[in-house]
Amino acid sequence: MLKILGKASSINVRKVLWTCAELKLPYQREDWGSGFQATDTPAFLALNPNAMVPVIVDGDFVLWESNSILRYLVNQYNGGHLYPSAPRARAAVDQWLDWQATDLNDAWRYPFMSLVRQSPAHQDPAQLAASSALWNARMGLLEQRLQVTGAYIAGSDFSLADVVIGLSLNRWRRTPLEHPQLPALEAYHARLRQRPGFLEHGDNGLV
């Protein structure tokens, strides 16, 4: 059985859990990370030298890096409905997977550490204001995209892009900063709430 190493509160672990829910894929999860089993031990570093979660162990195959794990799972376990094989349709999904991991993550890092984690190193008012404005601007790009598709991030169908963007949207909505009115995003959030996997692993009270 597929083994997932990582605590369930981690946003990157929740990507994997939600994808497993969409695939109806059984798994065993072990708590690793802050507050649980340490990831800087030789045993864990042998699986992921970056000492980060999630890691999956699928038989004799080990993989880390959350978005790579998502791609592997849908390719290995008949997830073509989440990750189309046609080159252009797949590229549209990949585009948003990569954007979420780079541009969007970079935008929310400072406000999240400041307002949610209450990190003493992230309390500069000017930097917080600038970073919050950038995060809102990135969410505005998603608003524009959803105005075009009228449905999901990569197009008319739910895909892996919505797993990563959906969790990022949940983090944005639950972080106590000033949020602009983005009606297409709110309608999108309502659509995601119709999916049991999002309710269990996304919109479940965690940031």
UniProtKB/TrEMBL annotation:
InterPro entries linked: Glutathione-S-Trfase_C-like, Glutathione-S-Trfase_C_sf, Glutathione_S-Trfase, Glutathione_S-Trfase_N, GST_C, Thioredoxin-like_sf
Record bears the keyword Transferase: yes
Annotated Gene3D superfamilies: 1.20.1050.10, Glutaredoxin (3.40.30.10)
Keyword terms of this UniProt record: Transferase
Superkingdom as given in the UniProt entry: Bacteria
Pfam families attached to this UniProt entry: GST_C, GST_N_2
E.C. numbers: 2.5.1.18
GST C-terminal domain mapped to chain residues: 86-207
Coiled coil: none
Record GO terms (molecular function): glutathione transferase activity
Protein name: Glutathione S-transferase
